[in-house]
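ok new one. same drill as before - structure tokens go in, u give me an amino acid for every spot. 427 of them this time. try not to just spam alanines like last time pls lmao
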């Protein structure tokens, strides 16, 4: 089987959940014995070195089936590219193409994609075109034209239209009206694309159900998304009985649900934690913050305060969380699955999250994690973890068991093989 993998962003280094998920799926794909060739086509707004290509191949185990194509230059984060943002806005006005699709359309990308989709031998066409992220489905007509016999699989990391609906709900007029229009256009295009592809992969049962309803309501078509949960290998850190009250946070510091949660944590929760434990510290790590010419991080004022330290990206998450009695994972909005929550579980770090943070995962409050949407309740749970060794150990063991039950490679392979049209191997 020859698979062409099309994704929005070159997934190395794994700075955020989207890249982590893409790497996980690539690893799962090359592990299937039927896959003889896997070509990765991606975009990047910065040059990717040969060393980074090699590092990614190494991370995947240097599989002989893997073909890494140097990423195509394209603005990925449009807030840094105002000209491209204006172009996307104009396309939305003239054609109704929503932001989530319009940002990925470019002639340079289409030219490169056309070249790479051409089979090396006419008798060996691509069997599967795997579209990773809904946005890259903007190229679905091109894929269908150049690969008429290929099975097209679409993986949805989120329910994208839901994200825009949540954004609209948080705005005031007239921005609210514009955001609602964008959410409507996003839902219409999302439903149409989902109805056109041969198989849809969702990251959670929650997302699968929402995608089913979306397509039925807007297209009158019945689809059955296949759930492929993130694969997770447990690797718990040491958790001594006596630990300093060091609370850690890690996440993509540009993703709005994370930003909203971190604002809330620093401004509403953290003063309450410090009133209970004056010596408590909060260390914030993650990618996305800009730096000055002197290399200093541009930390928003709302993330500054007594005991708070923002350190930016950390290359070794395991080292970062070692010695921390608790992780804070507040999230407000979004869909999909929070990879950082899975990271805390696999590392065995007890975690306090919100209902939105746990959304998409069948986690139970006070069983695998602690959950609260109330600042006082969230602060109380963080303080409790700092002092209760038995609670930390109980949550740790339950979390590790949860991952073994729900996020094994064997479980993920079932949905993936069904999406690829491959038989399910018993046992």
């Amino acid at each position: 089987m020859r698979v062409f993998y099309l994704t929005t962003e070159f997934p190395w280094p794994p700075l955020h959940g989207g890249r982590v998920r893409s790497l996980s799926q690539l690893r799962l794909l090359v592990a299937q014995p039927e896959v003889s060739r896997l070509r990765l086509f991606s975009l990047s707004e910065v040059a990717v070195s040969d060393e980074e290509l090699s590092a990614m191949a190494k991370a995947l185990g240097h599989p002989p089936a893997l073909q890494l194509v140097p990423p195509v230059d394209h603005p990925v984060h449009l807030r840094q590219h105002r000209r491209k943002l204006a172009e996307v806005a104009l396309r939305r006005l003239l054609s109704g193409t929503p932001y989530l699709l319009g940002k990925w359309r470019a002639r340079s990308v289409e030219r490169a994609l056309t070249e790479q989709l051409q089979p090396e031998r006419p008798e060996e066409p691509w069997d599967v075109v795997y579209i990773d992220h809904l946005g890259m489905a903007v190229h679905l007509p091109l894929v269908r034209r150049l690969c008429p016999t290929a099975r097209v699989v679409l993986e949805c990391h989120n329910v994208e239209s839901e994200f825009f609906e949540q954004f609209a709900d948080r705005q005031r007029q007239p921005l609210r009206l514009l955001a609602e229009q964008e959410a409507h256009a996003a839902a219409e295009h999302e439903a149409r694309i989902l109805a056109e592809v041969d198989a849809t992969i969702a990251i959670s049962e929650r997302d699968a159900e929402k995608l089913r309803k979306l397509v039925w309501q807007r297209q009158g078509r019945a689809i059955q998304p296949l759930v492929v949960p993130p694969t997770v290998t447990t690797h718990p850190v040491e958790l001594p009985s006596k630990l300093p009250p060091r609370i850690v946070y890690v996440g993509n510091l540009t993703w709005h649900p994370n930003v909203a949660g971190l604002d809330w944590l620093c401004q509403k929760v953290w003063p309450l934690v410090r009133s209970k434990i004056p010596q408590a510290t909060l260390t914030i790590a993650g990618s996305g913050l800009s730096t000055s010419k002197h290399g200093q991080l541009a930390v928003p004022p709302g993330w500054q305060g007594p005991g708070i330290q923002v350190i930016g990206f950390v290359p070794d998450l395991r080292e970062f969380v070692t010695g921390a009695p608790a992780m804070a994972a507040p999230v407000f909005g979004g869909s999909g699955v929070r990879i950082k929550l899975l990271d805390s579980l696999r590392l065995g770090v007890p975690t306090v999250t919100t209902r939105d943070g746990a959304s998409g995962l069948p986690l139970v409050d006070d069983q695998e994690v602690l959950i609260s949407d109330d600042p006082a309740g969230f602060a109380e749970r963080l303080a409790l973890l700092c002092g209760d060794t038995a609670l930390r150990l109980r949550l740790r063991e339950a979390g590790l068991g949860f991952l073994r039950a729900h996020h094994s490679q064997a479980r993920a392979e079932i949905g993936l093989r069904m999406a690829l049209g491959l038989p399910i191997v018993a046992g």
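The first strand starts at residue 2 and ends at 7. and btw The mean pLDDT is 91.
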